[in-house]
Amino acid sequence: MYGKLISACVLGVEGRIVQVEVDISNGLPQTSIIGLGDLAIRESMERVRAAVKNCGFTFPLARITVNLAPADLRKEGSAFDLAIAIAILTTSGQLALREAKRLLVIGELALSGEVRPVSGVLAMVDHAKQNGYTNVLLPHANAAEASMIQGMNVFALRHLRELSDAAERGEPDRGLERLRFAAPAAHSSDTGQEYAVDYEDVIGQCQAKRALTIAAAGLHNVLLIGAPGTGKTMLMRRLPTILPPLGNEEAMEVTKIYSVSGKLAGPFEGLLRQRPFRSPHHTVSAGGLIGGGSIPKPGEVSLAHKGILFLDELPEFTRNVLEVLRQPIEDREVTIGRARAVFRFPAHFMLAASMNPCQCGFLGAETPERRCTCSSAKIAAYRSRISGPLLDRIDLQVEVSRERAPESEAAPLSSAEMRRKVLEAHEIQRDRYRSLPIDWNSELSGALLRKFVSIHRDANDMLKQTYNTLGLSMRAHDRILKLARTIADLEQSERIDIAHIAEAIQYRQLDRVATNEGTEGLLG
What we know:
- The strands form 6 sheets. A 5-stranded parallel sheet has the order 11-14-17-10-18. It has a 4-stranded mixed sheet with strand order 1-2-4-3. Strands 5-8-9 form a 3-stranded parallel sheet, with no helix packed on it.
- Helix 20 (about 475-490) packs across helix 21.
- About 35% of the residues lie in helices and about 15% in strands.
- The protein contains 22 helices and 18 strands.
- It has helices spanning about 40, 45-55, 80-90, 120-130, 145, 160-165, 170-175, 205-220, 230-235, 250-260, 285-290, 300-305, 320-325, 325-330, 375-385, 390, 415-430, 445-450, 455-470, 475-490, 500-505, 510-515, and strands at about 1-10, 15-25, 30-35, 65-70, 105, 110, 115, 135-140, 155, 220-225, 275-280, 290, 295-300, 310, 335, 340-345, 350-355, 395-400.
- With about 525 residues, the protein is an alpha/beta fold.
- Strand 8, helix 5 (about 145) and strand 9 (about 155) form a beta-alpha-beta unit.
């Protein structure tokens, strides 16, 4: 006897259709699963056997072969349990639930027959929809997530026993209809999101706030440099409060990544709307940062997709970990090669980082009680932990000085004020690039950069002079132009003037220091 159902797995961050074929033949009782499955899949027969028996069915005493096709595709996870169990029961004639037209079946089984949720449902159901499938049977806990895919009929199952009650011989559609999941009302984009923190909490630091407003307006990479206690981490952790919310397509991309990574904890409440903020510890490995494994999974750079990757105390990260960031920053995706396949993960993020000016941290912030004890060689060695090519890719390198006690009671700049400016600049960019596959000034390159960066002659002369004086790379030259484009957008100016270029140049702090002797010029 032969039977077949359609299930799915996740490859990278995308779903893949898998055919679950079952053959029941005469012979000594034996079960085997073929089709390049991992340990969790090979163990699934024991879960299926116990679930089938504990739900009042009979597990066939025959030779059972389960094939997961295509056989050359590596598969992992427990999402095939439900499809295998139903395929065995229908093939052995114990269930009359015939395969509904274009039905996808995914879910994990407990030994009791309870249907448990699995990760990656959003990616699998979306891929099935693109391949013409219109129905999906899955765990009730995943039903709300699957209902985000428009045009899919979602049937939710809490327990395997429900199938024997719901299925009616010769009327499979009516049986499934009883399991139909009523999708909740669509979640609208929330532009008035509330945060527990606000830039109002940060007294002073007007220059740093200005730099972060520019970074958020154009999704530019930013580095804050200052002594301990100057508020670098405090400033960075408030960046999400001024970023625009995710659009519908962006929200779907980000939610897919979190679904595949198993990070949609608790009841599903709709697509993620806040931009991600990821802050890995400096002990993170290269694989943890960009993704990896025998079947690669998304790393921190992909979890920060369309959001912020914050690296606190940047020089404390190991050199090889920092160097793997160079390709994702440029390509906005991570490419991981394996013998059987090449995996690509989206990684379009804003790199936000902080560091001390020296190892002890007090260079340029000396007081009678605290003085810098680092030699010039020690300071140079500390800063050399961050390579030139990586620094070249950071648009804003900003000093954060120690603030004096406020002399007036003027209200500090709040997140609401900064966010308003960011939203206005972002709207200008969306309108400018509406017919192009980009949304931010930081994505400009090549011909598009020359087309959309209209620079005044005096401003161009200043940039040329700075380029020659500081010995900038062409990458730094182009990043100054993109930064100036964002500064002009914040002022709602279509033309880039000399003031915009001058401000963009002043944010290249470490380029300026490199032209001076020793450490003079940076908090010195």
